[in-house]
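Problem 3 from the worked examples.
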Amino acid sequence: MKTMIRTIPVLACAMLFAGGHAWAQEQASPAESLTEALPVCRLDPRDSGKLAVEPCRPAPPAQPRRAVSQVIGRMPAQPAPSVVPMASLPPGPAVPMPRTPQPIGSCDTGGCRDAAGARYNGVGNATLDANGRICHRNGAFIQCF
């Protein structure tokens, strides 16, 4: 039984190779002649969304296609950005720098207190510290600018 199962695919392949090609050519010729008998596709003059006659065949190309090699050029070199020197700050009162984020200890309806006990008044993420600076709450930390 095993040898019979193995030989069936071999026989089928042999039959396809021996006569299948000629059969495919015979079947292709009527199909080609059918497409030659069909009119060239044209749009309906009353409705441009429809074809005038169906079924139809595509129009032959006006010119034969020609091979064109694909050219991929390199990107032009970008000049290095010019460095603009920073102007020094004018002498005067010290510019306040942002403090490091402080962990929040507790919050109530009027604001929050950090771990050191400093009060931040306001609701939501924008609050003010005791000096009137704007502070931003981000999760469990608050930072004043």
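Problem 4, a separate protein:
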Amino acid sequence: MRYMLMQAYGAVELEGCLPMSEWAPEDVRAHIDFQHALNTELLDSGELVDAQGLAGPELATFVVSDGVHPARIIDGPYPGSKELLAGYRLVDVDSLDRALEIAARSSAAPGPGGAPIQQPIEVRQVLAAPDPEV
């Protein structure tokens, strides 16, 4: 089963945690090293399909279309938003329990001073498209 593990930033992470742009360089490096190590472990086990960090909301663009008229393109930033999707992992695992285990490890990634950041991870199963012949 495939699950998308979406990493939010700015919701309920570590109390008083600064934005990563304000972390000490060694804390940023420790956080990134943790993410790379977890990805390597999941690659080696055959469970990682893809993992990516995403650009900040200041670079976001929304596209809205009715399929007839020209699409509306709406650019950020969106200063009213207090959280953003920071990145994701797509995993192919045997069970929801395993996806939750991976999400819990990711949530505990180190932040400032090495303290677990407690980053919220949304876990959603990736659904297969319906069979067109049915």
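Solution to problem 4. The radius of gyration is 17 Å. The mean pLDDT is 87.
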